[in-house]
Specification:
Layout lengths: L4 H10 L3 H17 L8 H10 L3 H18 L5 H9 L3 H15 L4
Helix pairs in contact: 1-2, 1-6, 2-3, 2-6, 3-4, 4-5, 4-6, 5-6
Length: 109
Amino acid sequence: MYRNVVVCILLSIITCGIYGIYWMYNLNQYACYAAPQEWNTDGLLVILFSILTCGIYGIYWNYKMGKAYARINGGSDNSLLFILLSLFGFSIVNWAIMQNDINMAQGRI
């Protein structure tokens, strides 16, 4: 599931967030696969709940992804950082950090 982080960010901006939704879905699916004990909610439900709650569920999702990716990589827990970035509208930075963690876990960086 290697993706170039810069390309993902550019595609998210160029497509006005549509690629960002797809990227969020894939990040969620990877967390479900790699850390099912930490997170096991389907990506489509995450997107639906985020839309229905006007983004509040998205903030919770970013928090849980910080926990899940810490378990996946055995690294530091970024959940507080992810909440703060989400609250200020920088969730795309969270996604870039998560994608970087995936790339590092696959030994591609």
